[in-house]
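Hey,
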Amino acid sequence: MSWHQLILLKFVVLLLCGVTLASPAHGSEVITGQVEGSLSPIAGSVVSLWQTADNAPIKLAEVTTDKEGHFKLTFDAQDKRDGVLYVLAKGPHPAIVLMATLGKTPPERVTVNELTTVGSVWTAAQFLDGDQMKGHALGLQIAADNVPNLVDVETGKLGTVIQDGLNSSQTTTLAKFNTLSNLLSACIRRPELIEQLLALATPPGDEAPADTLAAMQNIARNPAHNAKEIFELFEKLYPVAEGEAWREVPVIPYLSYPPRAWTLSLVYAGGGLNSLGGIAIDGEGNFWAGDNFLVGAQSTIFSSFGGGISKLSSNGRPLSPMTVGFRGGGVDGPGFGLAIGVDDKVWTTSLAGKNISVFDRITGKPLSPATGYNFGGKLGQMQGIIVTPNGDVWALDNQNDQVVHLPGGDASKGRILGHTEDGKPTDGTLKVKAPFHLAIDAKDQIWVTNSGSNTVVRFPASDPGNAAEFEVGFAPRAVAIDRLGNAWVCNTVGHPVLREKLELVKTALKAKVEQRFGNSSKDQQAAEEWISLFEILQKFPGGDVSMIRADGTVLGPFNAGKTMNGPWGVAIDGDDHVWVANSTGQAIMQLCGARTETIPKGLKTGDAISPPGGYVGGLQIITDVAVDSAGNVWAANNWQLPEKAGFQKVPPEAISTRFGGHGAVVFFGIAKPVLPPLIGPVRVP
């Protein structure tokens, strides 16, 4: 048999076996690029292209860079699934590993260097295990979509958002990002230095990382560990030469002082974001916020122009109209109440509007009437709102000491519980005092914080009159339920150590308020109470967190080593760790939760994982905090210049629009991911 007859026979056999032959070039895609380090090409680096899948990533191609650091990756498009693509560059030194996350649609050209490594690691910190990226699809997509905000993977240079006006000069994120990149550069230029970085990047009680990629992952997930020592290593590797003023580094600017932690955060704005109250993450990873005030308005605590609600994509792109956000449906100055239901509805409460509104989650169209749901004017300034797993809506009238229940979200069947304006209970026994926030646990029990006292009430959703009361700290705000059934409560003012001082302050403030304002309306009195609370926190800083077990035992208070100041919002992550919006402390804090297997060595429930004072970066006076599916922690900037602008009847013109806090702040990859929306206790992927 001739050779061509043999080939024909093999071809027939393959066809009979159901095998399809394709040309190697058919459907192929090509990615070209260069591996760089310390501003120079890296030759002999093994470059591989990977794609995330259900359980483990799939290798699509692998090549070695030439003497100029160039590479060309060719892969079959038929192999490409619905996952995130990323590139690894290993060597030639075995401990040098760099990375670039490309997303689902890769560019034709890629640069892999220190900046792409830092940007890719921090956004995907919760999905990286050495050189493998894996996890649930939504979280991976969110991580990939945020990479361009930090770094341009085509050029290997800084991204657009990290260099914009909100982030480049208003936070230390740009300098942190460059400092980390410069550390990698030093290791690439002088591999004998790598061991020093690996040692400092070793978590307590753990083994040292094997390479630079693993080291960066450890720093991203444990940002406060050896923070000062890592900075000192940077100083050591880049000394200021005699007669010079600056360190000779590949990228500038860099940090001049050691950070509290190596967190990377960005401020996102637009879409009507201003003076954020309550925030929430929807099932697609989009960020929602209620805006106390309208962007650009000269709002004060006495006379405000209420805002609407805002929506951003998971990478900060505004999805609601610029300046005004979504309006209509009665929304007017939302407070701390915003909730997302499983039925693609977004519920919010209004302070100025004194009502409840509902919007379509996809279009932003208002679904409530022009007046909102106000029960014939019986509602006052509204705060917390939740949607329960069965579709019921519960909301709180902070001003009139009332609880509102909409069975199945149907306002026509709604009822008001608690105290009416004439002081008579409508349900027999449920009594609340300035109710502020609420949550529902796995046993269908509603938890309500009483900001006008030091108590929390809990009642069965089917029997509100059967309420139990628990004593916590003074002026409790947000409450969140972990997966073990514990309720975590933020006490804005704190515990009895402040009580004597508090009584003196309240007496002095009462005289001051009367002297300043005299007789005033109920709304004016409410405004004065906000001023009083702020001034108390300024004069006597403090506040703490309580944990209430399912059996009613109250633990705490926990105060992060007395570094809390006005804790407000609270969220639970996938490890059941507790995230606190340290409002007037302008920071977020991470506490050990009750799940013992996730508590770091040497710590216990309630201890702070975050450094003293918490994580900072782009934060003003904040209210709420939320965790998304990528392990990012979002915080709500609520107030910016309260004393100079917001607490003045006629503020100085130059700062008259700066009472409201500016934008939302996202901290990348520092929490264990969760599955939004939050309806009941937190869920994990």
